[in-house]
């Protein structure tokens, strides 16, 4: 019997799918449906209320909305001031996690106890690393983490209980364990796929999340205070971004169906890894590598402009027509997190002899918005986003590229948790928007 070639069958059917799944632009205008649930100015369709954070990208002047520099607020506090107020040598991730989860800043005693709770929670079930993480390792650490998250449910006798206190416990344990799932997943992959030595360092209960990440990652467990502080700030910048970003909205949608914490967070992970969302930090690095290889003179604005135009026209790089690290669904003039990253990049690049790379980044930052505006219809402005520089910072911290999106997840699990709790406490209604049917009835 001939074996059926499923790939050939799928290829043959592609044309039919495209024909029957294409909906003309004019129908969207006719029914007033906004693609991506946003109008051309980036204003999202309102789908909920939240007390967790606020994003500012326009200022209202009378009836007019004027694009302005972006602002990000966590539970009433501007993210820039939360970072600026950190004392020398102080780590901010944990106290910001307390703030986002519980809605108030912790006092000294509350923070001390919260840190003990996280330290106590930092531990995987017996043999979990051997039996789950080291089995079928993958270069895609986001997938490997998601598999681990779903498997952790099998070790939790209360996995399916959606009482708020049980969900708080599960979220705290996931927040504490995410760095281990990511780093051990990387070591397993690096050993089995790259033939490197494998080592599994346990976290130190006295250390912060950023310090433990570096300690577990490096063979000799060492890092400098500056490296850990830069990573801590990077985590703070990625922790939360409103209810509408793709992965947080996913968390809220899935939570509203009454599903368990492990499944909700696994769904959020699957969203975050997308290259238009958290996966962009890896894509930026691959794109920069491609630009370095294909642009001869990094100081020639015309040559860079021409190459970026080719990327936009799907003739270069991954042929998706996107310049990664540029543009944002909501921000207009600037993403406040990119501004913070840029300050670090400028300082680190000097220490690490990466000034020439920095110049290339600066060139792309200058020229890419022009090229995008020439090739696409941009109404609200286009500027670099949080992940334009994040990968460059991680590279200078000698963190392997496979861990860039997982680092985003290590931070954003806090925002997802806060939104899961807000959905559970305050909403109690399944999220179920409507699709206008344009189907024709047939005999
Ligand atoms: C943490 C984060 O998730 S930050 C975002 C990370 N993602 C990236 O860096 C990927 C590159 N950027 C993008 O793909 C987009 O800017 C997004 C997905 C972030 C936002 O997309 P949109 O909400 O559609 O942005 P906006 O409405 O301003 O875009 C207008 C047009 O410009 C295009 N555009 C925006 N940014 C870019 C870009 N960087 N490269 C190419 N085209 C772009 C959009 O695709 C859209 O075109 P269309 O009208 O033909 O669909
Ligand atoms: O808000 C968005 O759409 C994407 C983003 O920047 C984030 O999730 O941090």
TrEMBL record:
GO aspect biological process, one term: carbohydrate metabolic process
Keywords assigned by UniProt, alphabetized: Acyltransferase, Transferase
Catalytic activity: oxaloacetate + acetyl-CoA + H2O = citrate + CoA + H(+)
Pathway(s) served: Carbohydrate metabolism; tricarboxylic acid cycle
Active site as annotated: 328, 387
Pfam families: Citrate_synt
Record field: transmembrane: none
GO cellular component: cytosol
Protein name: Citrate synthase
Protein species of origin: Agathobacter ruminis
